[in-house]
Amino acid sequence: MKLSYIISTILCFLCLTEAQSQCYFDRHDTSAQTAWESCSESNNPNPARGVGHWIMYDFGQNYDLGQMHFWNYNYPGETNKGIADVIVDYSTDGSTWQGGITHTMDEANASGFYEGEAGPQLGGVSARYLILTFSSNHGGSCYGFAEMRIGLYEDPCDDITLNVDEVPVLSGLYHAEQVLNSEGLVNATSEVLFQAENEITLEAGFESKLGADFEAKINDCPNP
Q: pTM here?
């Protein structure tokens, strides 16, 4: 699976002078003003989910969706508002829903260096609409959530030569038919596998942070 972060659905927009970590692509600041918060339940657009706390995203057209990444509520002293259990549903028309994919999120650490966590891999499902339904939190009186990012899913062996230079490299499998080169950054919270049939080159500038689950190996493309 080869991912690109063309879709970046972000609830946080500002680089605050007192919280400059938001200026870094994979970090989240500690401001409550750059997060979403819900203190009252409402009817979910997916009737199967009933009444509760939820967010719906409209990407404007159908995309083949891949790896998700979440940032929980990161405001100091109130991280218990952050989401514990989330259900992911998706739709092409906003009426017929599929998914029911569950994920449990860790409580944020109230740090300006907070880098979130990998979420579910959607594996190329086609969708325009996506709902996150929050079924539990970490004990707070309201439900809080900061940011979601999702990559596009592409053919896992579409390129003869593949360059993976993203900062950061999103979790997933990156597979080239012949050669894979990278100057990217693999964060500590990510799980990344590079595969190529002939050659993998980790160029000057490539970095895998301590704690990352990173592997590079020579392997043939899968049979179609």
A: 0.66
